[in-house]
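hiii, so i know i said id send this last week but things got crazy w the move. better late than never?? heres the sequnce for the chain we talked about at the cafe, plus the structure i predicted for it. fair warning i was half asleep when i ran it
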Amino acid sequence: MRDKKRKIRFTKMQGIGNDYIYIDCLENMISSPESLSVYMSDRHFGVGGDGIVLIAPSKVADARMIMFNLDGSEGMMCGNAIRCVGKYMYDIAGHKKKHMTIETKSGIKKLRIMTSGDVVVRVEVDMGKAILNAPEIPTTLKGDDEGKVVSVPLNVAGEEYKVTCVSMGNPHAVVYTDKVDTMDLTKIGPSFEYDPVFPERVNTEFIKVIDDHTLKMRVWERGSGETMACGTGACAAVVASCLNGFCKKNEDIRVILRGGDLVIRYTDDTVYMTGNCSLVFTGEMEI
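okay and structure toks below
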């Protein structure tokens, strides 16, 4: 047993309102990050955030991102967090590379760093190829002959939705609605997250199509609830919108989220995501 509390140094950062607590583990790894995430992320008794992100060494990339949700579960990938990892590496860790790679649980992602006055303000992330095959997402919903689940009916909490499923390293269910501003996500979100057709739970994006280059989105994230933004969710929304004929491939699509905007471009080979990243504050917390 420890005879005194230990201090954890952290950096609070946000990407379009998706705020995480970043802990530098490049020299020393911390223990019990699952419980630490629950403790530090509490907005009343802790620092407050959507979870914690550990920035660790990697043998195959410039750094490794390990992230945990509010409930202590480990996330496969977070698009808004990885932009902030790039900013941390460039601005704080002194890794002055305009192109860098970050290892995640869903693979190695390529980052293009954009600066102003030698401070990172925006990052473009090559998020990798969208996964559309139902068993790989995973979902038990029946796909078409190619395994794609596009506008498939699903009854959730007594209401029928047309669901399009995409994985961007974690599973997403995309639905379209004109009530995106008024719907009660605290009621419908958990029903989607824990629906048995999603064996690993699911992130759900509720989308209103403004025009063929603009989407408005709210998101319910597994393990975190409704968040201000979700980078992988915005990517999934654009992929789904191309599959449903609302948008076109190889064009920049603006996704409006509660915390700000992301620009997504879906190609045959990959999905590009571009957005801001900001330092909020640094500090220490005793645990």
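btw Residues 97 and 285 are 30 Å apart (CA to CA). thought thatd interest u
miss u guys!!
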